[in-house]
Amino acid sequence: MNAKLTITFWKICQKYPRFSKKLLMAHVKRNLPPGYPVHVHFNPPYNPWDQRLCTVPDGDLFYAIKSGKADIITDRIKKFTKYGILLESGKELSADVIIVATGLNIQFIGGVRLKIDGQEIAFNECVVYKGFMLSGVPNFAFAVGYTNSSWTLKVCLISKYLCNLLEYMDNKGYRVCKPRWPDDISLRPLLDFGAGYVKRSLHEMPRQGDKFPWTMSMDYFKDIKVYKNKNFNDDALIFE
To answer: CB-hemisphere CA count at 13 Å for 105?
Structure first.
């Protein structure tokens, strides 16, 4: 049910961004004290789901703000100081612990460098197969979750699908599995997502095609059918 609600709301946000933004702002305003500057702290310069939404289970963040146990400061960081963070406005925030969660760059598969027969793989020259393997790279799988829903939903589907693939290879006596992409597909970025940390790294990441199975699906209910299929007789896969 939660997955259906999330996907449905994501689709509404994509089709009616202005309405969705007003709806979210009104909801936040109802859950905060009168006069709270919602338009300052909950009004990002992008539409809902152009970047990931931060969900607030049971409204605990709003309760913490109303009780005075938490506060939100919207500003730009100028630098770290001996006692915390100096903001561009000149205000200094004292801090015992600072969690770095912005200004990051994605490293595909954690920055691991792969080689085939001594030749390093250029990931940006690879195309994803069903969102979990790379063209031309044998016996290698990875998992990227959803940008419009819970990350682990897709990771769980891929993990089970990979186990089924390994079982198929064992039963057939195969030791190698490698996707091979056709020349007649158009290529586009791996993720269609507006977050800065994604955009800054897309040029280093694999790409996706314009048709199945060379796409990076973001639809959980379509993926259920894809990843539950145990038929691996696919012209796109080479087994040895």
So the answer is: 8
Q: CB under 8 Å to 20, separation ≥6 — which residues?
A: 9, 12, 13, 47, 48, 49
**Alpha carbon distances (Å) from 51 to 44, 48, 193, 211:** 10, 7, 7, 24
pTM assigned to the model? 0.79
Pair 180, 213: CB distance under 8 Å: no
How many CA atoms lie less than 13 Å away from 10 in the CB half-sphere? Answer: 22
How much is the pLDDT for 110?
87
* pLDDT of 151: 87
Please name the residues in contact with 151: beta carbons below 8 A apart, sequence gap of 6 or more. Answer: 145
Q: How many helices (H) and strands (E) does the chain have?
A: 7, 11
- Taking the CA of residue 235 as centre, how many other CA atoms within 13 Å lie in the half-sphere pointing to its CB? 3
Bridge partners (DSSP) of residue 93 are: 85
Residues (pLDDT < 70) of the chain are 1
Tokens of 93: 């925030």
C-alpha–C-alpha distance, residues 122 and 113, integer Å: 9
CB atoms within 10 A of CB 10: 20
Residue length of the chain: 240
Q: DSSP 3-state assignment of 128?
A: strand
What is the C-alpha to C-alpha distance for residues 147 and 208, in angstroms, rounded to an integer? 15
Mind spelling out the 3-state secondary structure of 48-112? Answer: ECCECCCCCHHHHHHHHHHHCCCCCCCCCEEEECCCEEEECCCCEEECCCCCCCCCCCCCHHHHC
Which token pair is 171? 């039963």
The first and second tokens of residue 41, run together, are 């702290």
